[in-house]
Amino acid sequence: MRIGEIAAVVGVTTRAIRHYHHVGLLPEPERRPNGYRAYSLRDAVLLARVRRLTELGLGLDEVRDVLADDAGRELAEVLTELDADLARQEAEIQERRRRLAVLLAAGPGEAEPLSPGLAALLAKAPRTDSPAAAKDREHLTLLDATGVGGQEIYAALGPLAADPAVLALYVRLDELADAPVADPRIPPLAAELVAAVPDEVFAAVPTDGVVVAGFKEALLAEYAPAQAEVVRLVMEAFIERGRG
Hints:
Elements: H1 3-10, H2 14-22, H3 41-55, H4 60-67, H5 75-105, H6 116-124, H7 131-145, H8 151-161, H9 165-174, H10 186-196, H11 199-204, H12 215-220, H13 225-243
Helix pairs in contact: 1-3, 6-8, 9-10, 10-13
């Protein structure tokens, strides 16, 4: 058989066959006096096996291992590894599809690349125009992206997010935008914010907390002075409470 004929029999392209020759995967038969390669039935069987293995998802190096003689790996071993790899890819695809479903379900202008857990948490929160609430959402999104957040924490925060009384705390924080740092409203508001967080949240937070190096300073810089003082007191109380 010529190269075009064996390609037609096995169902591959002549270009693929030449590539297999080039990488040493398929022995190149001797040429006849007329210059054409003469392929045997044995070549066709070997080429068919290469095709089956590549269709299963094996790379050419893995196919070479399978086809090797005594030094080669067992086909069952390679296929087991391939199955495990495909399972991991399938799980990753399913997770990406879950996240995509969340984005598709969001309203116009609301789609964000959130984990399903955080998306479900934010969906429980009442709509508000509060700048402080918007900042909280941004901070949660950041922690979610860096892996600090988690399903256990989001579940613990669920009742808090759905509590309309929390909006009143955000409004009080918004009202401090132009206040001095000595404003008497600061200490009681900080205390109420800390008291509003369920104990389950602290149990779910990692032992090293969520205040990583540089994060506290960057967070406080986003607020007006009086608001930053509230947030500072809250963060210090959280750290102390988390140690308890």
